[in-house]
Amino acid sequence: MSSQTSSNVENLSPQVIRQVSKELTHLTQKPLEGIRVILNEEDISDIQAIIDGPACTPYFGGSFRLKMVLPKDFPMSPPKGFFLTKIFHPNVSRNGEICVNTLKKDWKSDLGIKHILLTIKCLLIVPNPESALNSEAGKMLLEHYDDYCMRAKMMTEIHASKQPKTADYDSDHPNPCCSKSDSVRRLGENGAEESSAEPILKRHANDKSVTKPIGSSTTLTQKQKTNLKDKKRTLKRL
Q1: 8 A C-beta contact, residue 182 and residue 236
Q2: Is residue 177 annotated as a catalytic residue, yes or no?
């Protein structure tokens, strides 16, 4: 895990440092919805953020801390992403490494930190079991979705919730695990690519809403309810 904590700032060019610093400052001043960047002014290569678990997923109610590690030839090579908060997800290994195409074969040097954060958030909404780093989670997602949902939800409540709750998965829960939807079923049958999340990514990229602080009320506003309906419609089209 040393690669997730060591500084890499001395290996980055002054131009890259200025570029990353500018983008991180902008993201702290104008936060993305459900994403809070943690700025380390003493080490700009220490890029961390907290992503709120999206509604209608087993990660809802949790706050997940992640870290990006920039290679010395960034932005020509993609950063590595790690969840520092334990999470049960097909595309996250047991040591927290994140597997997403944006950080691998689909990387482009003009993609910024904002795009990466939004893509990781989309991965919480639309997992891709075909490129699973956690084979157990990937298998459960495809074959036993309810068990996968319960396991992911339990891990969220134990490791990611500010106030852990007892494992109550009945219909009265404020965010019950949904039954396996057509979109998730297609993920298993066809192997969804990251582009499946592109409509969500584009909508969030233009969203200027400010994320709520951790520990704030989880009561949905009318705007959030509308956004949730939009997400459901988008997932049905995937």
Answers
A1: yes
A2: no
